[in-house]
Amino acid sequence: MLNISIVLYHPQWEQEVIPLVTELLRVKCLRKIYLLDNSGEKGTPPSLPSREDTKGKLRYMAMPANLGYGRAHNIALRESAYYRTELHLVMNSDIQVKAEDIDAMHDWMISHPEVGQLMPRVVNPDGTQQYLAKRLPSPLDVFGRRFLPAWLMARRNKRYELRDLDLTRPVNAPYLSGCFMLLRTTAAVEAGLFDERYFMYPEDIDLTRTIHRNWLTLYYPQWTITHAHARSSYNNKHMLWIHIRNMCRYFNKWGWLFDRERRRFNRSL
């Protein structure tokens, strides 16, 4: 069985959330969808399907304030652990995915117990690929991409984004994007779930690399999903500051210049 959690913040209900939830309710292996609304607004949106229509498979939770991405997802992940739900899908509301593909990914994960996390191929709405499976970042990878000229970072970005590999084949990558994280619940619990010290941004790097120590964390291109990637820190100074602050917390935790695990994982690819 599978639980799905989606963290929301002033979402586009009619354009994104309702169509996505409608599709997800078609997933055969679904136990429950958790909508965790960080908007700080009380009450269930009137356009959501009723409990009777969803057979209790949809749970809307209005948070009292913006808890952050990882902390909100952890609420649902702990319920998956409590009820021993084998797989848990963390995903964004701006994803388009077919219910049949989620069922297929679920069945594949069940039959491959060595895999702790899976991310399919991710494309933009125009069909071009998003390079969301990566090597672990150094400070130069993170801050150079944002503040240095693109031509200066081009060669380094290619390696960071695994463009030097054959991405038509599965890759055991130490960093998979938080936009779609199909997690084995026991692997996520063993890793300590999302580190709640991050408000948002590096929590997916942190969790994937921790799972990667003992499990396969696979980019698996057999399935494709569509992601309307907002890249809000590139367009909003407040979000840029949040990004910088939380990446500093990440490097304070794992190491700025000296991170032996980063070197070992990256060299293995």
Keywords:
269 residues; alpha/beta; ten-stranded mixed β-sheet; two-stranded antiparallel ribbon; 10 helices
Helix share of residues? 25-40%
From the alpha-carbon coordinates, what is the Rg to the nearest angstrom?
Answer: 18 Å
Uncertain ranges: none
Structural class: alpha/beta
Percent strand equals: 15-25%
Question: What's the total count of β strands?
Answer: 12
Coarse shape: globular
Largest sheet, described in full? 10 strands, mixed
Q: Alpha-carbon distance between the termini? A: 32 Å
- Our count of helices gives 10
Q: SSE order, as H and E?
A: EHEHEHEEHEEEHHEEEHHEHH
Average the pLDDT over all residues and give the rounded result. 93
Give a verbal description of the structure.
The chain is 39% helix and 23% strand. It is of the alpha/beta class. The strands form two sheets. Strands 1, 2, 3, 4, 5, 6, 7, 9, 11 and 12 form a ten-stranded mixed sheet that branches. It has a two-stranded antiparallel ribbon with strand order 8-10. Strand 2 (30-37), helix 2 and strand 3 form a beta-alpha-beta unit. The radius of gyration is 18 Å and the shape is globular.
Produce the secondary structure layout.
Blueprint: E1 2-8, H1 13-24, E2 30-37, H2 51-54, E3 58-62, H3 69-82, E4 87-91, E5 95-96, H4 99-110, E6 115-123, E7 129-130, E8 133-134, H5 139-147, H6 150-160, E9 171-172, E10 175-176, E11 180-184, H7 185-190, H8 203-212, E12 216-227, H9 237-254, H10 260-267
Parallel strand pairs: 1-2, 1-4, 2-3, 6-12
Antiparallel strand pairs: 4-11, 5-12, 6-7, 6-11, 8-10, 9-12
